[in-house]
Amino acid sequence: MTFTLTIDEPRWDASVRTAAEQFPTVVPVIKGNGYGFGRERLARMSTRLGVDTVAVGTEAEIASVREGFDGTIVVLAPLTQEELNRLHPTTGRVIRTVAQADVVHRLAEPNSPDLEVILELDSPVHRHGVQLAELAELAAPLSSVRLAGIAMHLPSTGDRAHAVKSVHTALYELRRARVEFDTLWVSHLNARELRELGEAEPRLTVRPRVGTGLWLADRSTFTVTGTVLDARPVPHREAVGYRQRRLHGGTLVVVTGGTAHGVGLQGSSARGGLKDVLKGALMGAAHGVGWTPSPFRWAGKRLHYADVVHMQVSMLIVPAGVNPPAVGERLNCDVRMTISTFDEVVVSPALPGQEFAPGATFPAAS
User: Fold this and answer.
1) How far apart are alpha carbons 281 and 100 in whole angstroms?
2) How many whole angstroms separate alpha carbon 315 and alpha carbon 50?
3) Do 44 and 85 have their domain in common?
4) 349: in domain
5) How would DSSP label each residue in 67-124?
6) 110 domain residue, yes or no
7) For residues 94 and 73, what is the distance between their CA atoms, to the nearest angstrom?
8) Structural contact between residues 327 and 231, judged by C-beta atoms closer than 8 angstroms
9) 36 shares its domain with 174
10) Is the C or the N end of the chain the one with fewer CB within 10 Å?
11) Are the C-beta atoms of 104 and 145 separated by less than 8 Å?
């Protein structure tokens, strides 16, 4: 019995293509767990889209993406001095990201590795990037580097006017420092913002890097399910699970899908005020003892955990008076795709020319 991702391939394919049409010169992002679909599958889909460039998160992800994509690969993680000394040869064109002034100076030296790079600038996200005040001193060394453009990683929400303004400010400072470039690589600008940027900068090639908005554009085109392994009635005040929590009666259901699959894991959040801290503490405590609703659904409602989430299964409680699922039935599961892994992926029906048949199942890829 398995924790399964089922993809309606023609509909998912169509949703990805529709999303890609909103972003001319799109650079699909293929990183981590491949947004739940697997990096190899997204690489093959990128080939079918006909794009010339994709982006990966780290150097280690290049090999798996290269299995399904022959074009240019951009590595989003910035190079460090240490990594410059131990880069392994790669197949095809690979562009690295540089986000520190000392790395730029190193690459400009005569005996430095011959790499093609993108210079990442600081943005309102402040994750990493060269400061605008450093551009004047970097103009000369950058002229000796194979520069494939400038990059900015912007906020995905919040004050959009401020985010867009930060791009125009950066472009102004780049020109004032006399840094020569013709391509801007950006993350988290929507279609309208990209169009307006293109109109304001007609001589600049803008390459939007898109992940979530591309692969997860229409979540109705795929489903995640766990298989019921056991279902048994439990009397009122019966103790169950590792924590021996006493239930109010109902049906105890064991379903595939646990922490190893990404079920029951909580995403981090930024520190807020006292109210947010107290709320987070209460939610964390409730989650730790299994009191929060699970992501599994039955009869149109979310079921509650009967115990803390196990590694490969979850124990749920179906309230008394509700007809429970039978062993072998599947429960829909609302998961965060970027942290989820699956025992199998079911593709039905397959598209013409693919290597798997309609309804085929196969292990989930990395």
Assistant:
1) 37
2) 44
3) yes
4) no
5) TT--SEEEEEEEP-HHHHTSPPP-SS-EEEEE--HHHHHHHTSTTS---EEEEEBP-T
6) yes
7) 5
8) yes
9) yes
10) C
11) yes
The pLDDT of residue 156 is: 93
Torsion of CA 196, 200, 201, 207, to 10 degrees: -10
The answer to whether residue 294 sits within a structural domain is: yes
Q: So what's the pLDDT on residue 247? A: 81
Q: How far apart are the C-alpha atoms of 45 and 17, rounded to whole Å?
A: 10
Please check whether residues 265 and 294 belong to one and the same domain. Answer: yes
CB 309 within 8 A of CB 298: no
Distance CA 309, CA 130 (A): 42
CATH of the domain at 86: 3.20.20.10
Residue-number span of the structural domain to which 315 is assigned: 220-335
Q: How far is CA 284 from the centre of its chain?
A: 24
CB 51 within 8 A of CB 70: no
**Averaged pLDDT, 90-113:** 95
Name the region of 262 (left: φ>0; alpha: ψ -120 to 50; beta: rest).
left
CA–CA gap between residue 90 and residue 168 (Å, rounded):
35
Collapse the DSSP code of 202 into the 3-class scheme (helix H, G, I; strand E, B; otherwise coil) and give the result. coil
DSSP bridge pairs for 222: 7
Region 56-68: mean pLDDT is 97
Query: Is the predicted pLDDT of residue 350 greater than 60, yes or no?
Result: no
